[in-house]
Amino acid sequence: MNTDSKNYLLICEIGPIYDFVRQSRKTVDFWGASFLFSYVMSEVARDITNNGGTLFLPYLDNNPMYRRNGTIACGSVPDQIYATFTDSQRSAIENGLKTIIEEIVKTIALKVGKLAEQKGKAGVFDHGELKDFFHFFYTIHEIKDAQPTFEEFLEAERKIRIRSALRPFRQITGNNSIAKWEKCSLCGDRKRIYSKVVDKDAGLYNEEHICSVCLLKRFLPEAVTFIFSGTKAEFKKPRYRSSSDIAFSPIKACIDTADDEMKQAYKAFIRECEQISEEKDSEGRFFYDPNLRKKFTAWKKSLTEKYQDKIKLPWLDRPFYSIISMDGDNMGNNLKENWENRQDVSRIISDFSNDVDDIVSKNHGQLIFAGGEDISFVIHPEYLLGCIGELNNLYNGYFLKNDLTKPMAEKFTLSAGVVVCYHKYPLSQAILSACGMLRKAKKFRGKNATAISLIKGHTETFNFAFSNKLIGDLKRLKELLLSADISRTTPYRIKESEEVLKAITDVRHKENYLYTIIAGTRGVDKTNAEIMEIVGLLMKFEGIDAMINALLYARFLAGDK
Ligand SMILES: [Zn+2]
């Protein structure tokens, strides 16, 4: 190698990922938005390496999207890419970066445009709007050797942050001139180019409108099938279209194990609904639609009668779903302390993210994004806690298996921000709140935590954070509440006794007092094993409020309306 040649660290970033992802009406939009940004960045990474650059972060050598080999279930490349190169490669790389985004977006828009024409009233893509929307930028930072030191890495990061903050304010010219009924139903900002009649319960005055930019997410699953055809990659389509489908997932799981008579009757109802529905795309929506649900009344009754003992159906008339945003704890510090082993660390994280889909799918969820230790998915609250626990075990287990990372494996944990809400609760609002809850989980002492916001109605919301070490206890608490006879007023009576409980310093005395409150006036004998176990579980939650929240959340899971 020419010793006079200079070395560089390149950082590329794309935005505005957050706005784009958040402006979603259906689960499939959320999935599509994350996928699109990932796909664009994987193509950027391919272009850099094709022009002689070397990827520095993230590790993508085992990434199915980047390699175009393996199963692609969702977006998996983050919005920032770091690469190194030398003088001789500089001009080829920079020239590539100048045109790549426009080329990729154009290719996708072409596919999406054709699909839109088949599915609704579609106009012509506004390519100017597409071009304006994606903000792709990069900085090049000179480094001493072929690989950056941690200090050089930090310095380059600081540069891209400044660059990112300097992003030109997008002039929203002429948008005031767009009539209200011409605006996109997803972003509420740009002009529609596509319209489709929707069902009455969609709350959209009959038609849904989508703009040039938002249309890319809606038809992405179909468009992507074309993009990856002819490669070794196998594309896995998202299994749910809407949040109602997720709310319906435990019932669906029950139907799958039911007898043929129940299954056939169910299928007949769905066919009937499809004929009436405009959108025709979601069994969950049919099942919970105020106009269609009456069809299922008798069927639900016999399902409950037949399977009461075998399968618990507390969700039959309670359509809830949840959104989860997860992230690795202590990442900045972990990277610093493992700078010498950073290749191992990033490869481990990448291996982990390839395995996430299996766990989420097994728990009836839909993975939205898994890029490194940054994960988001939608899932039913019934399967939520188990899934978070499994993901954490998998993540931590990878670091335990590797000799280099084993000594500090305990620092590699994941925290989760969760919103649990009614199936009609706006998806965009839920996505926003899940990110807020993740920030709360990160502030939890010791990290490795989950923060849940349970939105039961317009006025009833409660937030609750706990250590992931207590996930199993919370699940057990729910099971006990299903079988034990506990008064509905228990949480309030614990609250009433807060001062007394706080004043008791002796653990045994505190347990006894709690036992008396929970046993209440029901005349339970002094050694009721279930209540003793509930007391033991509640004592693990620090503070009276955490105790009450654990009880309230477990009760929600157990079927309390
Ligand atoms: Zn839009």
Describe the protein in words.
Helix 2 runs antiparallel to helix 4 (87-119) and helix 2 crosses helix 7. 50% of the residues lie in helices and 17% in strands. With 561 residues, it is α+β, with helices and mostly antiparallel strands. The chain has a 6-stranded mixed sheet with strand order 11-12-10-13-14-15, with helices on both faces. The radius of gyration is 26 Å and the shape is globular. Helix 17 links the parallel strand 13 and strand 14. The model has no long low-confidence stretch (mean pLDDT 89). It contains 23 helices and 15 strands. It binds zinc ion. Zinc ion binds at residues 184, 186-187, 190, 211, 213-214.
Question: What is the percent of helical residues?
Answer: 40-55%
- Largest sheet, strands/sense/barrel: 6 strands, mixed
Nearest-angstrom radius of gyration?
A: 26 Å
CATH superfamily of the largest domain: CRISPR-Cas system, Cmr2 subunit, D1 domain, cysteine cluster
- What's the helix count? 23
**CATH topology name of the largest domain:** Alpha-Beta Plaits
Structural class: alpha+beta
Reported CATH architecture of the largest domain: 2-Layer Sandwich
Beta-strand proportion: 15-25%
Shape: globular
Bound molecules: zinc ion
**Count of discrete structural domains:** 4
**Measured distance between first and last alpha carbons:** 70 Å
Lateral arrangement of strands in the main beta sheet: 11-12-10-13-14-15
Mean pLDDT: 89
* Assembly state: single chain
Secondary structure tally: strands: 15
Low-confidence stretches: none
Q: What is the CATH class designation of the largest domain? A: Alpha Beta
